[in-house]
Every structure is written in structure tokens, then in C-alpha cells.
Amino acid sequence: MGYRRWGSWVSIGALSLLGAGAVVLSVAAGPVTRPLEARTAGTVTAATAGGTDPTTTSSAPVTAATSTTAPGPAPATAAADGVSAPAFGLPTVPVGGSVAGLSCASASFCMAAGSLEGGPGGTEALLEAWDGSSWSALPSPVVGDGTWNALNGVSCPSASFCVAVGSAESGIGALVETWDGTRWTVAQSPAVGTSVLRAVSCPSASFCAAVGDTEGGPGGTEAVTELWDGSAWSAPPTPPVAGGRWNSLSALTCTSPAACAATGTYQSDQGDAPLAESWDGRSWSVVSPPG
Predict the structure, then answer these.
(1) Which spans in the chain are helix H?
(2) pTM of this prediction?
(3) Which of 200, 220, 262, 263 could form a disulfide with 252 if both were Cys (CB 3.0 to 4.6 A apart)?
């Protein structure tokens, strides 16, 4: 399975929330990867411990192996826990396109999000839906002058509600789009300027969290978080990292409005290091990763 790589830094390689907000992290040296919301141009195996991420899989874990065959349904494969689950064909991605995020509310509904270079507007957002038998391309609203609309992640708690996040040019900054079961629309994001949202997790239609980074702060790049309460997005402050510069969050999972964990990287005097933050329903706080 190919995860999208983001620099040769120390990485937090896996992240999961287990009951009561407990956080499980594993740290590995190597490229930063994002194993949560399934950054892959093919198919996905949920990278959780002791269960599945409710925002990305159904009650029966959806698993598959990356394939180079033509798009279309694939035979069932065995999940890591021995449960047989259906495998999906590849989204039909045009030349110049890439899929950065994938989320499945069930075996009969998935949404893929990414970007397409070389379109009339330059780089355009790419959205495709899986109906249980095939993938279909969906129109994405054009934001600003359309010169750069790219999506980095998507989360679907149901077939009638999804959120995709990314970035747009022309001073718009963070890009947030929502799916209502029929069409995608642009949501008002509180993050502007040079902000980029890199991951999103929605345990329900009434709560989502998104994370990323923004340039131009005192430390160079600063971590950014946004929260959805069912009616509007807000941008709670992120805590400073002692001695940290170039702070960025790139992976996220939430099991409830009171339990989220995000991971990324920051730069210290000793070099690049893993960054982990947790949300308790009131505020974000920095936590110490193992190792």
C-alpha cells in the first residue's frame, strides 16, 4: 500500500484511539506517512490497532491491496483480523490526477479526493464516489479564480455526509468542501492566507476536526486546527511547541467530539522530531510520543 510521503523526517507511523480516548502511537525513523485517512491512489487497509477508524471503515473492516490492473471490482480479500471483506477497484484517475484521501462509510459507499493537474484552471480538485460496484467522477466547485484547488483528505461518517479538505490559491487558503449525499459545496473556512488543511476526521455529521499548517508565523510554519460543530467551522488555538519551529499536523483521527489525536512534525535545535497533539473537547494539548 502506497502512502503519500512528506519529506524524509522522523515520523509517527501509526495512530489510533482506543476507547476512553486512549492514544496508541508508534514511532519510526523514515519518511513521514499518513496511514489514517488512507492516502493512496489505489485501495486502502485501515491502519488502526484493536479496531477500525469509524470515519474510514464500516463495521467490517474494508481492506484491499494496491493493484495495477484496470479499474473495477476485485475479489474479496481477508482482513487482518481474519474477517472477509470486499476489495475495491481503483478510482478512474485521469492523467495528471492523484488521489490523496479515501474514506468509506460502508462497503457500498466510498469517497476519494485529490487533485488534477493540467485542467482549464491549472490544478483542480478531484472527487470520485464508489457505489459498491464502480467509481464515478463528481463535479467539484471551483474556488476563487480556480488556479489551484487541491484536496488532501476526506472523511465520510455516512453516505449523506462527507468533508474534504485541502487548499486553494488567490489568498483563500484552507479549502473545505462538504457532501450532502447529492453534491459537493464549498464551506466557509476560518483559516485564510497561506493555510493548508492536510487531514480531516468526522465521527458524525455534527462533529469534524481538520488539521494542517500555515506559513508566516513567528516560528515559520505553525500548526492549524479547525472544528465543525454541525453548523459552522471554528479555529481553536494550537499550543506552542517548546523550542519548536515549522510545526505541522498531517494525520488525524477522532472517535468523538471529546477525543481526537493528531500527529505531524516540528523542527527543533536537534533536528526534525515527531509532533503529537490531543483534543479533549475543550482544547488541544501537546503530548509526548513514545521513544
Answers:
(1) none
(2) 0.72
(3) 262
Could you tell me which residues come within 8 angstroms of residue 190 by beta carbon, excluding any fewer than 6 positions away? Answer: 226, 233, 234, 235
pLDDT-based confidence at residue 148 (cuts at 50, 70, 90): confident
Give a yes or no: residue 269 inside a domain.
yes
Quote the number of domains for the chain.
1
Given CA atoms 227, 232, 233, 234 in this order, what sign does their dihedral have?
A: negative
DSSP state of 240: P
Structural domain that includes position 106:
10-287
Confirm whether 128 is domain-assigned. yes
For the record, the C-alpha cell of 156 comes out as 465520510
Q: First vs last Cα of the chain: how many Å apart?
A: 26
* Contact (Cβ atoms closer than 8 angstroms) between residue 61 and residue 51: no
Q: Which of 240, 165, 265 is nearest to 208 (CA)?
A: 165
Cα 131 to Cα 225: distance, rounded to the nearest angstrom: 31
Distance between CA atoms of 35 and 55, rounded to whole angstroms?
13
Q: How confident is the model at residue 223 (pLDDT cuts 50, 70, 90)?
A: very high
| Backbone angle region of 246, left / alpha / beta, with phi > 0 → left and psi within -120 to 50 → alpha | left
**Domain harbouring 48, CATH code:** 2.120.10
**Cell numbers standing for residue 251:** 494525520
29: in domain: yes
The dihedral built from the CA positions of residue 279, 280, 281 and 285, taken in this order, carries a sign that is negative
Classified as helix, coil or strand, 78 is: strand
CA-closest candidate to residue 148, choices 124, 126, 184: 124
Percent of the chain exceeding pLDDT 90 equals 44
Cell of 237: 488555538
pLDDT digit string, tens, across residues 239-281: 888 777 788 999 999 999 999 999 999 888 788 889 999 999 9
Distance of alpha carbon 261 from alpha carbon 201, whole angstroms: 10
* Listed residue (145, 196, 147, 194) closest to 171, CA to CA: 194
Residue 48 lies in a domain: yes
